[in-house]
Design a protein that fits this description.
It contains three helices and no strands. The protein has 55 residues and is mainly alpha-helical.
Length: 55
């Protein structure tokens, strides 16, 4: 994962937990998930024809 080992990933997650606190983590995760989902949808080719979009 981006050239990082599991130890580095755990340290980064702990730092994020200390900075934002446990109450903000679900909000951050949800925002990140929405962003990644939107990015994934944008880079995938549009497979629907104009007739399918109308329905």
């Amino acid at each position: 994962m981006f050239g990082l080992g599991w130890t580095e990933v755990v340290l980064i997650l702990l730092a994020v937990l200390l900075i934002f606190g446990p109450k903000k983590l679900p909000e951050i995760g949800a925002a990140l998930g929405k962003t990644l989902r939107g990015f994934k949808e944008e880079i995938q080719p549009d497979t629907q024809t104009p007739e399918e979009e109308d329905h």
